[in-house]
Structures
1.
Amino acid sequence: MKTVRHGEPDRTRLLRIPSHVLADIVAHAVAEAPRECCGLLVGTGDSVDESVRTPNLEPGVTRFLVDPGAQVVLMKRLRGTRREILGAYHSHPQSEPVPSPSDIAENFSNDFLCVIVSLLEAQRPITRAYRIRSGQVEELEIVPDASG
């Protein structure tokens, strides 16, 4: 898996997310544990400016399925704006914040972001971001933008 944490970061591999949005994603993960939480990421380009919690329609505790109805409602709300759904987030309550084989297999767009929160160490949640392109996982560096 490629990572941008070593050497000079490539600008295209940075993802800006305001600190309050990151905090809300983590809070959602904590609230839903031991089930996986899920939601959608909204913004423009390489900047997320909003997370939208969605119901997890998957009945088990180790998978997620974003409610398509919630996605449609969000798409309608974003019509006529420059903002769009950039990707989705979900939690891994009992594993590392890396895409699982099902996360990789079920990725449907090379441009869709995947943000994962791990609660493996409950007192220290870890959040990481990825792009999954044709089965290849590329980690993005999250830049917690305090201005958002």
2.
Amino acid sequence: MEIKKIAIVGCGAFGYALALLLGRTHKNIIVNVFDVDEKVIKELSKNKKHPFFHKGHIITNNILPTTKVEEAVDKADLIILAVPAQFMRGAVTNIKDLIPKKAILLHVSKALETSSDKRMSEVITESLNPNFQNDIAALAGGMLAHEVADEMPVGADIACESEWALTELKELFLPSTVHVEITPDLAGVEFSSSFKNVVAIGSGIIDGLKLGTSCKAFYIAQLVKEVEGIAVLLGANKETFHTSSNAWVGDLLTTCFGNSRNRLFGELLGQGKTIEEAKSILDKKHKHAEGLATVKIIKEIEQEHNLNLPFFNAMYSVMFENKDAKEVFMKISLYQNS
């Protein structure tokens, strides 16, 4: 199948960055962009610019904004789902009767669903019609949205159980500045992109406390062991975490050391802000830290499986048990990770 039309559902920072990238890379492909915020779509249609993100870029003529989701997905060969994890079920349910039979569904969400603890591919599957035949894939890697929009060289993994869909998606990104590697380990890639946000919040707390790079690296290394074990326990392939994959190592480094939302959220907590205050600051920047919901999910998993996660619990105690961040993180070298 030759991809002739792409529909992007969700025009936030990353969805819009992908629209810019793919629109410029493939001038012969129509890229329809839809968002529930009509202000965003109207601004794109009128001035060719996004009102909030990547303002230095103008959309190409083959990027077509629309306020009608049915128009966006009609005859689409690829539907990119770029909506926050907690809205994924509703977004897919809303379009399930509009999705073309052969369209590939590619999601870029980096969290689990809080109401079910499920991965996004599971949520999407449950939200589609029972007799659906669409291939579901996930894209993840060290890709800050503004760097994708600026066409900086970045790396990503695409996971899907369909070899055919993986081939199609890799060919789509091949001429772009996104270096793509493919894998059938859908669970591994989805847990990677979700759990790295949790690690980033912890690293951000240390940044806020100004405890130094060495402390930050130590904490990351220990917390990584804990969340990797959870991912494998829940069905991920060990190789996804024990090799230098884009979805795990690449995204982890980018999120923990770059100007990412989750690291910033943690930094605000380390500076003494409450969760609500930190969320409010991000809201004003039109940003959302999806790792916050995943922290709560990991706590549930720990309790359900009777796990020992001392380094995770250091962060959790600061976030949800009103423990003093400086006191907790000054003592982390005493913790034992079994």
